[in-house]
From TrEMBL:
Residues 41-138 form the Methyltransferase domain. SUPFAM superfamilies: S-adenosyl-L-methionine-dependent methyltransferases (SSF53335). GO terms for molecular function: methyltransferase activity. One of its GO terms (biological process) is methylation. The lineage of its organism: Bacteria, Bacillati, Mycoplasmatota, Mollicutes, Acholeplasmatales. This is Methyltransferase. PANTHER family: GERANYL DIPHOSPHATE 2-C-METHYLTRANSFERASE, ZGC:194242. Keywords: Methyltransferase, Transferase. It comes from Alteracholeplasma palmae (strain ATCC 49389 / J233) (Acholeplasma palmae).
Amino acid sequence: MAKLAGHTFLATLGKKRLRPGGIKATQWLLKEAKLNSSLKVLEVACNMGTTSIEMTKKYNLNLTSCDIDKNALEIAKANAKKKKVSHKINFVYADALNLPFEDESFDVVINEAMLTMQNDKNKEKAISEYYRVLKKGGMLLTHDVCLTKDDETFNKEIKANLSRAINVHVEPLTVSKWTETFEKQNFDKVTEINGPMSLMKPTGMIKDEGFINTFRIIKRALKKENKTQFFTMFKTFKKYKKELGYIAVASIK
């Protein structure tokens, strides 16, 4: 069986939250945005729609959610229908580097765990697109992987090994480099929190998924066809647990 991208693989195991800082980081972002039903909100790289659905239900939003993965979009649509909010979410097939929306269309743009997978040029291109579609005074909310040490040689090793483990090329940045990247795109105020990754930690999984679903995920992970990829990812995240973290950033236009 061919190796899947790490986030796709975890989704096949039943993991619903595929973000490095888990529910804690996402909740911080949503609190920063002070969401309410009058705001126009865009989620870029919505994946299975978990955050979009939660925002819709909690804040009574009508929002737009886009992704470049057609399979993920179909799953997101099915999940929204199951949760009875499909009439409130407009799912759009779109590329973050070339968004099909007019300038200053949204009050809030949220994008989790996607920029890490872009090179520096594409990071800047995506962020410039988010800036373009945000209204003046609007807020960009992002959530990504960060490097905790400013050691260029060691960080190069981490990025190479992490890319191999999750079968996707990744280029996380240090906290200071992340904030510089947003400031470079003319965002007026950049606020961040950071901390240890929870994505594959047992305690983090239980907090994000609940005990029962965590048990189901582990049970599926231990199947013969999944075991090798799961343990490759698990061991890599464990090896670099002090060097890899999450960063959540709120940037105002």
